[in-house]
Write a structure and sequence with these properties.
The structure is a single chain. By secondary structure, the protein is an alpha+beta fold. The chain folds into two domains: 2-102, 2-Layer Sandwich (Phosphorylase Kinase, domain 1), CATH 3.30.200; 116-353, Alpha-Beta Complex (Aminoglycoside 3'-phosphotransferase, Chain: A, domain 2). Helices cover 47% and strands 11% of the residues. The chain contains 13 helices and nine strands. It is globular. The chain starts with a helix and ends with a helix. The structure holds 2-acetamido-2-deoxy-1-O-phosphono-alpha-D-glucopyranose and magnesium ion. Magnesium ion (MG) binds at residues 24, 26, 207, 226, 228.
Length: 357
Amino acid sequence: MFNDILRSFNLEAEEYRIEKFGEGLINRTWKITGVINNNEFILQQINKSVFKAPQYIAQNINKINNYLSEHYPGYLFVAPLPTVNGDYIVQYNDGEYYRLFPYIKSSVTLNTVQTRDEAFEAARQFAKFTNLLAGFKVSELTYTLAGFHDLSARFEAFKRVIKDAHTERLAEAKTAIESAYKHQAIAEMHQAIMSEQMIPLRVVHHDTKISNILFNEDHKGLCVIDLDTVMPGYYMSDVGDMMRTYLSPANEEEQDFSKIEVREDFFTGIVEGYLSEMNTNLTNTERRLFVYSGKLMIYMQAIRFLTDYLNNDVYYSASYPGHNLVRAQNQFTLLDKYIAAEDRFMEIVLSTQNQRI
Ligand code: GN1
Ligand code: MG
């Protein structure tokens, strides 16, 4: 399989070492390293049961790439490489879609956030991306996933699946389902923000986990990667997903929930990093929604895992029975701990704004 795919990019598979790469739940990724020359690439298969129209991804990235190279030629943007036919995506005869990226030399990816500065650096890079694209017309982009971060739609899907789920799964998930209803106000707030059009649509990354930032060897941020979900959206998605994935030393896979914590200084790192690029661009309403963004994204992820568990694990791959339920319970635990720290987080946001940035 690799022979044909790599040949579309004018590479001979036997001249390359091919290794699985990264920990994403949706797409499959390989690092391709030249055994004779030192060329390095990233090959990725796009999950077409998730992304129904992968060519939209390529179109969006091309438009953004054109805009950035015209207006900010010095900005490092890792765009896919063209095939010999000039396409940015190839469909192999297994029906799957693949694309190839340059591998950025000496770059490092992290799977966990270990220091406050790493949180700052990552937040800064995601903010820089949205900020540089502030003049780009959002409506030029196609939605690569419909309703992706629409919490109201996610909540409706959760309520629907409850009606059809197996009795055993419903019984196993009883406490998690109660948690979902207990925090329903988070979904209602989202509904209000949307229906009153309180905040602007922006170009948003939508998947701000730390592994989607390239760092240099000193752990300074270089750029954002994994651009499949770049589409019109709200800044809350990016800021909130950073809260979800950077604050706790234990991630969504952790089964020992006593290890889940929210680290206040990492919260400060995210706020300062994000505002270091977006401060002048954010509206007052967006600022007021900083802390809410974390609740929104943690709650949405909990609901998504729970919905998938009740739906027999069709979306997120599960490697042990009950995996998605554990992930959902993990996220509800994180949500409770986040809410317990909410007042303090509000103070941090206010003081950061009044200070230096
Ligand atoms: C998926 O595949 P990955 O890890 O980049 C998901 C995100 C979730 C995340 C949870 C397209 O991202 O929305 O937050 O898993 N991406 C899609 O780990 O559904
Ligand atoms: Mg992703």
